[in-house]
């Protein structure tokens, strides 16, 4: 379907005039009348097109901004009315029902606004590509990038808006009878706009510039070891451990049809979005294990649940027959029966085979895109709570046979044989231009287990914040801190909805008229994602400040929700989060991530079931098949978070104090370490068990500091006794005596401080401690003491000379013009 036809069919009628006038811009290109010579396209034509394009951009951006602000204002009015009604105890069931229709209207407009942004972004991108192809002398794409940065209608984050709606629905569900069904219905609608993911894991995705890949790896390696894959292939399963692969090359062959139905379902997050791929590791000539995998995400479910995965292992020689439906894995079924497998297992296997073949036939699927990348996986063996995956050197290759006259792949073969020929070291060298695209960045994925006991792994949220943030990620006390520091740093750029499958289709088939939608992140590929560390920090602060301001009304309503609920739910009730009964129940799939620091949770050792599940997924990871991010996160109590934040701010102000611990946190020494069974923490660290070998200059530096303190003490003692011996000659003997005593106290303090500092540093040097040895307390006390003496001396002299210049009681016209 041509994009112009698609745009006309999907326009939201009330907003018809606000959409991009795609056909008008297309006519300005003179696509159908331009001759072979480019002389007919004049500078005036170019000016007219650019002006029309800019005018359309301004129109779309203005409408999108105005509509979003209108929805936000309408929600603010509803929140304010609810707050006032609850505080005055005048909120009735009729008031709540009157709000339901308004909320449904706002929710529907939010969904339409999201589709509005997608369609217009695709329209602008396609018309500019068409222009640059027809009139290559004038390139408009750079101008479009600049204008999209200035008018970012396509990058609006709807998560704060949806969160506020979900809070109101939760309030109505708690306070109105019969409102649960409405809230559940709204939950499904919300999940269709936001991201959904497996309830077991929450996944966060980032782009990493090639210059920063090594630094990102070293940061992760401090906390998670590198997984080493066994080089398994047919006939070599027993020797897999003898051929380890540190960074294996993974190949995924994605399926779709000529209409790109799977692509659009995944991009738009339709009710059901299936994915199908063939996957193997290493070179195909080495006969690796090959897996056919299908995964379906049900976005209509309130939690975005996954339909159970369907996957089978298959030999290369049977794949083409399997795809065409001529081979039904009869030999594998016979082997299962020969091994003594139960009839139930055999039936399940046959059902999986049938479902996969029916799915391929029903949707007319064929291999379309091959994705090749190098994978580095980081995970503690046996512990699947946190996993980091870094995919680099990503290449997308066309594998389709859409063009029957000039197919890229032989329709009678399931893959391109030209790049899988044995002995070819660089298969990309034989590919033609346009048949492959190299992705400019590496992709970092962090997966966090968020299922099971409430104390195991929790994710906290703060209302009104962006889904692009990961600062709410607190899987365990051990890992939460370093993950938050890494994801907030300048080394990565978060792209929450990124998908290799979507990126591969969009980059290789963007010019195809059958491709009606493009992902929002596509224009970011033209920019350098590297950031200055200071600039990244300031940007993070700005986002936090904006999210706090946007969530004020939602916070009030959320607290009122928990206070005004007439029902008392048990602890196990799904309406009460792990944070406690004061947390507002929020529909699954609607809570956004937090952009503020959150508390850390208790770390619990993984269960045997989790360990076995991890072992099964250790090699057959499906992270690049499922490229959806989840907004489903457990909530923390808002008041509890506020107290934590205030406590952290106080500690930050007192960070200079020695008792607050070491300031260097590179190795996260304050993290809790869970030891394996049978392992006991030693009383003496290994670095402290041997003889103390410290450089001579360290001892001398400590002694030199002690000598300087002694020198200062001698100077103070000389000054003290000199002043005390001349008290009788002072004009104000009382003040002079007081100053002498203060100086004597400073002298004693200086001696004790110098000796105490010497012993303190000596102790930490012998223990090889990482504590900072500097301490400004002593110099500050001495400085304050001297300041007090000078102040007393000034006051006494001022009193003698200015206020009482000839007062006999004050000493008259003594030659001594000072106190001492």
UniProtKB/TrEMBL annotation:
UniProt domain SPX: residue ranges: 1-145
Region annotation (Disordered) ranges: 540-640
Taxonomic classification: Eukaryota, Fungi, Dikarya, Ascomycota, Saccharomycotina
One GO biological process term: polyphosphate biosynthetic process
Origin: domain of life: Eukaryota
Main location: membrane
GO CC terms in record: fungal-type vacuole membrane; vacuolar transporter chaperone complex
Protein name: SPX domain-containing protein
Membrane topology: Multi-pass membrane protein
Location relative to the cell: Vacuole membrane
Biased composition (Acidic residues): 618-637
Residue spans crossing the bilayer: 709-727, 739-760, 780-800
UniProt xrefs under InterPro entries: DUF202, SPX_dom, VTC_Complex_Subunit, VTC_domain, VTC_sf
